[in-house]
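Email to the structure team, subject: LPS-assembly protein LptD model.

Hi all, the expression group asked for a predicted structure before they design truncation constructs. Nothing fancy, just the tokens so they can compare against earlier work. One-line instruction: predict LPS-assembly protein LptD, return tokens.
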Amino acid sequence: MTNPNPLLLCCTSIALLSLSIKSYADIDVSQPLPGSICYIPPTVPLDTPTTTNNQQIAVNSQNAKLVQGKQAEFTGDVAASQGQRHMQSDRASLNQQDQILIAQGHVRYQDKVLNVKSDKIETNLKSHATSISHAEYDFNGQNGRGSAKSLQVDPDKAMAMEQAVYTPCPPGDESWSINASSIHIDKNRNWAVARNAVFHVHNVPVFYLPYFSYPISNKRETGFLYPQFTSSSKNGFDLKTPFYWNMAPNYDVTLTPREMSKRGQQLTTNFRYLAAGQEGELDYEYLPNDRVNGENRSLIHWQNNGRIGSHWQLLSNYSHVSDNNYFSDLGSLSMSSTDQLLQQGQVNYRDATWNAGLLLNNYQILGSTHAPHQVLPELHFSGLWDTGLGSLQVGLKGQMSNFTDSDPTVYTGQRYHMEPTLILPLSIPGGYLNNQISLLQTYYDQNTKGDTQLKTHVSRTLPEYRVKAGLNFDRNLTWLGNAYQQTFEPQVQYLYIPYKNQSDIGIYDSAALEQDYFGMFRDRRFSGLDRIADANQVTAGATTRFLNANNEEKLRLSVAQIFYLQPSRVHLPNVSSTANNSDRSALALEGDMNITHDWFFHSGLQVNDDTGKVNKGNAALEWHPTKNKLAQLNYRYGKPNDGTLSDEINQIGMKVSWPLRPNVHFIGSYYRDLYLHRNIESILGVQYDACCWAFQVAFQRSLSTHYEANGQTDPLGEIDNSIHFQFILKGLGFSDDSSTYRKMMNSGRLPYGHPFYLNN
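Reply from the structure team: attached below.
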């Protein structure tokens, strides 16, 4: 057996010993615990006299003995108040010179924070500093109780306890507690420190900590987050022990040591920053000498979004992994699994008239698929000006791009594009008519690398004319006894671009675009500029909406179709052009409906009305009766006949999030590939919430892509079975921790998605 890394074992041990030391940076306060789980009874005020300010003191008792200016003795049902501080006792004495009040017997003390039972309390009426002996305490309005041999209260700064016990559990529940030689709470820092602490579970000592600290507010503070336990067929026993370091108000880091019994020790670093108008994060994951394949494995991910002054913007999105199977083997805390990792940087300039930018673009493609060309660099710009001639506008777009490739045998080139435009927008209250004329001028200087289909120099000039018109109608109606406003919004577009043979131009950044309802009204069929499809076509479409009396959109239906006056002859290489021979496109339909206040439905279809067959489709039905109850059934289908899909898709899935009892929450997820007749992913999870602790367990069975040594994809994929555990202790922050079941909903390869687009 390989000897474990001592440093990692040390970090892991500390984290295990401090399961409850949780940074509030990880708390979702939007999900309070149900009241039946942890009921906090209201504080019953002590029956004491009232005072008008914090300096006055009022005392009631059965007997009193006063020595003017020196001493006062009170006996029999003594009740005293000073502002918000109240006390009851059997007897009390007041030193009038030092303003020291001492209460003894069956003493009860109450202020805006604490309720205390004791046998002796000494308080300074000037400084309000209070010393309490043999105290039994609880906190007003929140979980937290315990005892202390001595308790010192400074109302403005701190509270200190000696020989103290603390638990967030209600009376009668001894699930867990901390016994410490001292607990010191700094109210200015909202931070507590415990020394020589012994953690007890059901009054049984479990482990010892000489020192630890924890937050008492929702501020971001340094500390261990809850560890995560997983056991899977790929990695064996898997333990993550994240540590959050609040380095400064504008940057922090989370370090996550990870121990995998089959693979070894991994360290993940997540650094976040806000500085000089920049916002971003840098992630690095490193696994030295993977025990399974003997390789060092790593991931780096950097995102940045920032501004310099009022006009300049800096953007970056860079990701890289050490090998093809990194995500399928190890997953990632930093980013979701993908087979294309973007490596991009941008500098943009923007003012009222001009937009300009410099772009560097590359991809890391996992597997044997050839990566797209690198864009090193691209300069692009656009501008729009009013001419002063009515609503006529002049626009200008352009770009200069340099395309390279890591493969020396693949063609490369430079592209120069200029696009002047005249735009005449016309509008009336019930409609619009927009006219646009453009001239598309593109020049390529290509290094063909022996590709006989390409030319070294290519100049392409294409005019484009586009006119789009729309009307807006509305009416009031009654449907099923309810009043609605219905809109009807037809629109039509004519687009003309002449044909030009472009087969002598390489494909650098062009791909087929989706022809859904919104795609029907684009002026391009392909992204990029390497192929500009000829067009002589009319697009017709309409949308209708139903809005209730509260102006909530309850139903939206849209339909559109392109009618080709001439078939388009330009297509991408290796993509069939048979779809372009029809006199019309597929019929695109979109629908969203809020059936009742808690039922939602969405559907999108692309139907070939010549054959009646569906090219693409998706549907989702969701029941969402309350914030923590959700059930969704979804389906998606697609054929790779238009270049936007590489494989056929035929999948059905479901998501369920449902409380079985006030303190038991169930999560279920199931996705199946109907084309390949196999499960893609199944998740079954349960979270149990008690008042002062919670436990989460999830079983997961998922299909992952596996790449062979030659970069080819294993057609059967790999099935990974895993079980995840998380034990959550509540209360060290003097605030209820929230339920974390929603994190399970967003876990796995297919997280929950909200597919409904109604404007509510």
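The CA atoms of residues 373 and 405 lie 5 Å apart. DSSP finds three helices and 41 strands in the chain. Ping us if the truncation boundaries need rechecking.
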